[in-house]
Design brief:
- This protein is mainly alpha-helical and 253 residues long.
- The protein is 79% helix and 0% strand.
- It is built from 9 helices and no strands.
- It has helices at residues 2-21, 27-47, 54-81, 93-112, 118-148, 153-165, 170-183, 187-210, 216-245.
- Helix 3 (54-81) runs antiparallel to helix 4 (93-112), helix 4 (93-112) crosses helix 7 (170-183) and helix 5 runs antiparallel to helix 6 (153-165).
- It is globular, with a radius of gyration of 18 Å.
- 39% of the residues are buried.
- This is PrsW family intramembrane metalloprotease.
- Keywords: Hydrolase, Membrane, Metalloprotease, Protease, Transmembrane, Transmembrane helix.
- GO terms for molecular function: metallopeptidase activity.
- Pfam families: PrsW-protease.
- The chain crosses the membrane at residues 5-22, 28-48, 214-233.
Length: 253
């Protein structure tokens, strides 16, 4: 199983590298992506340095990020054929992304580490979410700079502000939920919950695009973003408290 994990990681990483090679990066969007990734990865490695499987989690999350975008792009065509293109990212991204990330948690917690408690599962999920965020935002910075914001430096900065305001830790929240379910031997139930929360986040921006004259999707989307920030901050506090009371790792471990 460990060899399967490494094989899948390399395959996903190769797909992601090819994906980024085709993205319309400008110097400013490359710099923004590199700075964002360096800061987020460094902080994660520092704060979670005593947890097992963190580096593996971030590598897996990054490795499947490009693969997820490629799958999402193909899913847009299927939604259009079904007449559901108004759903936008809410119609495909949550399912594809959460399953790919959850697969990494399963493999890492089965093949790479020996989790001692539910915290180890959740922290691996957090790391997978961080790695995914780094990759996904690199794509977002590139596309938003070129396509939507119509400038170079100002466009990249604007894209960064938009992505940061929409909660860059949300992927860690989603994957942390499914990882917790895995630790409780209820993986399907909690994976569905993670997908549902992800759908809720993506739904109202999609509805804002579909109903561009309506204000209610924008207001509802803002409420959802605030709620996700509250849930994320609350989750960080709970995890820190639980980790502080956890028994120390045995000397022979």
């Amino acid at each position: 199983m460990k060899y399967l994990y490494y094989l899948l990681t390399l395959g996903a990483l190769g797909t992601t590298i090819l994906h980024y090679a085709r993205e319309p990066f400008l110097p400013a969007s490359v710099l923004t992506a590199v700075i964002f990734g360096a800061v987020v990865v460094s902080l994660t490695l520092f704060f979670l340095r005593r947890r097992p499987g963190i580096a593996h989690g971030m590598v897996w999350g990054f490795a499947v990020s490009g693969l997820a975008v490629e799958i999402n792009t193909n899913m847009t065509h299927l939604l259009a054929r079904a007449g559901l293109d108004w759903l936008g990212a809410a119609g495909y991204a949550p399912l594809n992304e959460e399953v790919l990330k959850f697969l990494g948690v399963v493999l890492i917690c089965t093949c790479v580490i020996r989790p001692r408690s539910w915290l180890d599962y959740v922290f691996v999920g957090v790391a997978v979410g961080i790695g995914f965020t780094v990759g996904e935002n690199a794509t977002a910075f590139a596309r938003m700079t070129v396509d939507n914001l119509d400038s170079d430096t100002a466009g990249a900065l604007g894209a960064g502000v938009i992505r940061l305001a929409s909660n860059p830790l949300s992927h860690s929240l989603f994957t942390g939920l499914s990882a917790y379910g895995l630790s409780q031997k209820q993986p399907v139930r909690w994976l569905i919950a993670a997908i549902a929360v992800h759908v809720t986040k993506n739904l109202f921006p999609s509805l804002s695009a579909a109903f561009d004259d309506a204000i209610w999707p924008l207001l509802a989307g803002m409420v959802v973003v605030v709620a996700l920030w509250v849930a994320t901050i609350r989750g960080i506090i709970v995890l820190r408290r639980k980790a502080a009371t956890e028994p120390p790792v045995p000397a022979h471990a």
